[in-house]
Automatic annotation (TrEMBL), chains A, B:
HAMAP family: Bifunct_BirA (MF_00978). It comes from the Bacteria. SUPFAM superfamilies: C-terminal domain of transcriptional repressors, Class II aaRS and biotin synthetases, Winged helix' DNA-binding domain. GO terms for cellular component: cytoplasm. It comes from Geobacter sulfurreducens (strain ATCC 51573 / DSM 12127 / PCA). This is Bifunctional ligase/repressor BirA. It catalyses: biotin + L-lysyl-[protein] + ATP = N(6)-biotinyl-L-lysyl-[protein] + AMP + diphosphate + H(+). Residues 34-53 bind DNA. InterPro entries: aa-tRNA-synth_II/BPL/LPL (IPR045864), ArsR-like_HTH (IPR011991), Bifunct_BirA (IPR030855), Biotin_CoA_COase_ligase (IPR004408), BPL_C (IPR003142), BPL_LPL_catalytic (IPR004143), HTH_11 (IPR013196), Transcriptional_repressor_C (IPR008988).
Amino acid sequence: MSGERPRPAEATERDMDRKILELFRSRSGGVVSGEALSTLLGVSRTAVWKHIKNLKNLGYRIESVPSRGYRLVASPDILIPAEVSAGISVRRIGTHVVCFRETVSTNTVASHLAAEGAAEGTVVLADAQTGGKGRLGRRWESPPGVNVYCSIILRPPISPLHSPQLTLLSAVATAEAIERTSGLVPAIKWPNDILVNGFKVAGMLNELSAETERVEYLVLGIGVNINMERDQFPGDLRYPASSLALEAGRTVERIPFVRALLESLDRLYDEYLLKGFSPVRDAWLARSAVMGRRVKVDGGAGILAGTVEGIDEIGALLVRTAGGSLERVLAGDVSLEG
Amino acid sequence: MSGERPRPAEATERDMDRKILELFRSRSGGVVSGEALSTLLGVSRTAVWKHIKNLKNLGYRIESVPSRGYRLVASPDILIPAEVSAGISVRRIGTHVVCFRETVSTNTVASHLAAEGAAEGTVVLADAQTGGKGRLGRRWESPPGVNVYCSIILRPPISPLHSPQLTLLSAVATAEAIERTSGLVPAIKWPNDILVNGFKVAGMLNELSAETERVEYLVLGIGVNINMERDQFPGDLRYPASSLALEAGRTVERIPFVRALLESLDRLYDEYLLKGFSPVRDAWLARSAVMGRRVKVDGGAGILAGTVEGIDEIGALLVRTAGGSLERVLAGDVSLEG
């Protein structure tokens, strides 16, 4: 297979950075002596100094405290595994995190990792994407430093026909994370958009590898416009788009957002494996922008109009037409009426 | 990506073999002089002689006719692209054929080729499989020289939810090829078994790579027991199995079978792209072993009993229960009653 591959170079170096950050965070007052760091990490004082310098370069504010050591004053909002994983409480999703400063597409990387056998719950993040993918071959704007581009590998024991259930699950988790970290009230637009105040702030693009009756792996791709500025949106977007910061009127930190997202995903997925689709469906319907509303659906072959009555077990939208028949919509663009 | 990969080495050599066979077949009486072969192929008389020797090693019976040249007396029943493609009439499926004497699994090879961008219609064949795959991780018995193990790459412009339609299409094509080459009357057992006289003679294992709303590629895997002897079946088979030869009481040639299979697939797929699922559904229902019959379905979570009324657009079996409700069955093992 050709194409982009992750380069987990300097894994032990990164591991050392993570351990140093953990030590800072475990101390009240946050001061750790160079000697303690050297002893606890089993490296020389010079090596400790090099790692401190490296962390400062990454944006950490670390002060020297005369005759006492070092103190961590502030952490930057950069996507590195040490920060994403710090203190996160998950069973499966986020136990292994890979971060890129830039990659073609986190979904592409995650698909390659999954094909090579990466464990369920592996998360791929990037600060920027050079070939971010949207629905149906469209582009997903992926400038550096402001948004979240995240892909998660799942291996659910289900038929591929049920895989849209996980798309709905990822939409619910994203909506929860937006609510918890920004205070905004998101709505889910079938099948995979997240709206705030009617503007699209997040989208899902999931990839599937399966045999006829069982999924080999799913990659949940989640793109969220966090701190994107108005002039960073292209003029030709299909839907009116916005970012959490624009809607909330304040900067939203990315690391807490990613942690909230992974925790929601993990909890919902755990519940899904235990209890099936029902809880996800209920949560989805509760946050749905279309439930009970009159809609028009452009399914490519024609336009269907009616009132949304729910979704079925394969994620199809159930639409009651004026004639009284209940239609199952498997794919299409939905617009609200009235 | 690790694992098995095709080695299309000696492509030009094989191409030369194919051209020589075509020349033999284009001549009435089948005699071609060494000089004519040399001139038409643009190679030396020594090279012609080497290729004739090579074809003899492959099992072709080629006679020297004194002062006239060579004559092709008989072709062996071996799976090589030159034989599979000879005189085949297809639009898409079978325009590119790759054959292996032995491989792990033709589905695995085809999936790798598809991921690397192989064209729609590419066909992978093997004389033997060392890791032949059946449904749900089961093994597919794949001894050398007697059966057909075939995988086809498709790139239909459909939603992954509709991909079971292609499983049904491959079952119809396999049933047609069995009928045309053996005279037997096959029946299709939902979702993907082919029965003759109640014995399973063929199975389908399809693999899918997709985004939420569109298929990237499908691999149709088709295994057919052609000339397998009774003592070649393992004792612990899940279903009673047989081969075309055992049921027909005579040897069935593999090359004509593969050609018939690819031609049926090609014709049905062409019709599918033009007219949608309806013709496939009608053909499937006409050959179905379960249509109108009382069945029990073991879907893992429980047993459902009722009468089969058809299949819907995502390939679900429609079963009318004694209580009168119409149930949609997405996965499970079906057994006939009464």
